[in-house]
Design goal:
Layout (H helix, E strand, L loop, with lengths): L1 H4 L3 H26 L13 H26 L8 H4 L9 H7 L5 H14 L3
């Protein structure tokens, strides 16, 4: 055992290379003796973590599909924040506040919302 502890990495690499070469030469002989070819050996290991991640992925894909389905039925309409839609004192909303609230909308949607607010007399 003392002899193995003193082996260098180069010596171990050489021994491993010799062992691999011997195995490569032995496989065809074993296959010929068995009468059939030995194909590749494939193994999979499934851990609980992998099944948990697969379930989470399936749940996320289902949620995305539901969100897409609900988004397609909403006709792209969005609502204004309560601070802009409900003015208790009847005073018009400030233009800066409206612009800030509409930043998530496209340019066409902002124009449409502002024109509706103008018609309603809110700005």
């Amino acid at each position: 055992m003392q002899e193995n502890a003193e082996l260098t990495i180069d010596q171990l690499t050489t021994r491993l290379a010799i062992a691999v070469e011997a195995i490569e030469q032995a496989v065809p002989r074993i296959a010929a003796a068995a009468g059939e070819a030995i194909g590749p050996i494939v193994a999979t290991v499934e851990s609980p973590r992998e099944s948990e991640l697969a379930q989470r992925l399936a749940d996320a894909e289902k949620a995305i599909a539901e969100l897409r389905a609900s988004a397609s039925t909403s006709n792209g309409r969005r609502t204004l924040p309560v601070s802009l839609a409900a003015r208790h004192d009847g005073a018009p909303a400030e233009p800066g506040a409206i612009d800030a609230a509409l930043t998530s909308l496209s340019l066409e949607q902002r124009i449409a919302v502002k024109s509706q607010l103008l018609r309603a007399g809110l700005i």
